[in-house]
Description:
Elements: H1 2-19, E1 22-33, E2 41-54, E3 57-64, E4 71-81, E5 84-89, E6 113-120, E7 125-130, E8 135-141, E9 144-150, E10 156-163, E11 166-173, E12 176-185, E13 188-193, E14 198-204, E15 207-214, E16 235-243, E17 249-255, E18 260-268
Antiparallel strand pairs: 1-2, 1-18, 2-3, 3-4, 4-5, 5-6, 6-7, 7-8, 8-9, 9-10, 10-11, 11-12, 12-13, 13-14, 14-15, 15-16, 16-17, 17-18
Amino acid sequence: MKKLIALFAVSTLASTAATAGIALSGAASVSYDDNGSAASATTYDADITLVGTAGGTTFTYSMDVDRASPATTAADMATTIGPVTIAADMFDAAESVTDSGTGNVKVQSVDTGVTISLDAPIGDATVGLDNSGNVTVSGTWSGVTVSHTAKNGGDTTTAAAAIAGMDISVTNKAGATTWSLGTTVSGVDLTLNSKQAITAAFGLTGNTMTVSHVAAVATAVSTATTHSVSAVKAYSTVAISRDLTSGAALSATYSSLDDSLTLKASVAF
C-alpha cells in the first residue's frame, strides 16, 4: 500500500510539473444586430488559446470553437538561443479569394514560415531574416522606435515615438506613407490617422463610450493579384461598453452606415 501511495504521489508531482508551464485563455460572445431596415441577425464567437512555456521556448495554439468542428486559427513557436531568436509560424491560414469588394487577394498565399532574429550590438538593433529572404532591422534610438524591412515588392519603414504627450506613428510602404496620432485631452483619448478616421474614447476602464468617424473608401479597380474595391461612404459609430458584476461585459454599438444597433454580451478569461 505504501508503494502505491508513493507511486501515486510521484505521478501527481510529474503531472503537476508537466502542466506548470501551460496557460489557458479564451473569450466568447453573442451579438444581436437589428441591421437597420434589413433582417436582424444573431451571431456567436468563441475562441480558446493555449500557451505552453518551457525555459526560453513558447508554443501558442489557438482554436475557433463556435462550430461543429473546431478549427485551428494559429500555431506558433518561438525559442531563444543566446542572442538568437527563432520564430516559426506553422499554420497556413485560409484567405478568402471571393470578390467581396474589399480588394482581397485572388489567389491563396502560403503564410507559414520561419524568422531568425539576432540582437546585434549595433546601438541596440535587432536584425531579422525570414525564409522568404526579407531582412528587417529594428531598434529604439533617442526614444524613437524604427523598423525597416527590405523585401521584394517594396521596402517598409515604420517609426513610432511619444512626443509631448502624443503617440506618433509613421509608415512608408513601397513609397506610400500613412500616419497616426494619439493623445489624451481632458481625460478623452483621441486618435487620428492619415485616412481621416477619428476616434474619441470617454470614461474609465469598465465603463466607456467610444465615438468614431470612419472615412469613406474610394473605388479601386482590380489588379493581377487583388480584386476590386467597392466605394463605401463615410459613417460614424457610437459604442457604449460596461463591465458587469457577473464577469461579463455588455456593449451597444450604433452605426450610421446602415442605421443599425448591435448588442453584444462577452466574457474573457
